[in-house]
Amino acid sequence: MSESYSFSDIKDQVVIITGSGRGIGKATAKLFAAQGAKVALTDLDEDVLQESLGEIQKEGGEAHAIVADVSKKEDAERLVLEVYEKWGKIDCLVNNAGITRDTLFIRMKPDVWQKVIDVNLGGTFYCTQAAMKYMRKARKGSIINFTSLARHGNPGQANYSAAKAGIFGLTKTLAMELGPMGIRVNCISPGFIETRLTDAIPDKIVEQFKSRIPLQRVGKPEEVAMTVLFLASKMSSYVSGIALDVTGGIGS
Ligand SMILES: NC(=O)c1ccc[n+]([C@@H]2O[C@H](COP(=O)([O-])OP(=O)(O)OC[C@H]3O[C@@H](n4cnc5c(N)ncnc54)[C@H](O)[C@@H]3O)[C@@H](O)[C@H]2O)c1
Asked: Is residue 3 part of a domain?
């Protein structure tokens, strides 16, 4: 394959992946490290973060782990600064950290509403504001946010679907504002992916959901990771402002 049509530019990219102690974030970190990227791992949970770091290093990858809560402005700024001081640039930010706190709206307490907005939408805002400074100076960069199929609405997820719809709107707006600075902004919209986030969903609901998936199975974190790699590489050089569905065919 010709040099200009490959993922070779991932090598030596400095990539920050939030929530990379588990699930989709961890699979993404491992994939980027295997392509030769310098990967900044970050998570709230230090134990799983160290496990991710150990696995990547064992496979010969280059990574650095930072414990941070993305819903806190000072943590997001510290995280980005530490990565910049270590590696001197930031090519890609993957705003993957996310949580659910499901309950019907009629029973939803304000703190449960706020927490989900703060981590998903607030975390994306804080990390992006901190990282775009460096991308703007370099006049290049790729920001990849995580929305969800649930942004179209899902019973029991008023807080989560509001946050994920917000991330979609934020992505579209940032693609417009940052595009002239050479920065691409996209989001990924997974359907049902097997991770801790979906572990808690009762089997009956999983089976109902599965029956609606044209590919007739749920997705794996690695299958989402491959789409993140695409959006970070020059293979998507003219792609900005999209939500890439990774849903096994469920339409949005
Ligand atoms: N799994 C799915 O089916 C699915 C579907 C649609 C969207 N998504 C989105 O994909 C992303 C990854 O989800 P996942 O399924 O891998 O979840 P996961 O729970 O397996 O992993 C998420 C990681 O984020 C970390 N995290 C949580 N809050 C944080 C915070 N405040 N600061 C830093 N780290 C924090 C957790 O400790 C965890 O390690 C999320 O944004 C999620 O909303 C997942």
From this structure: no
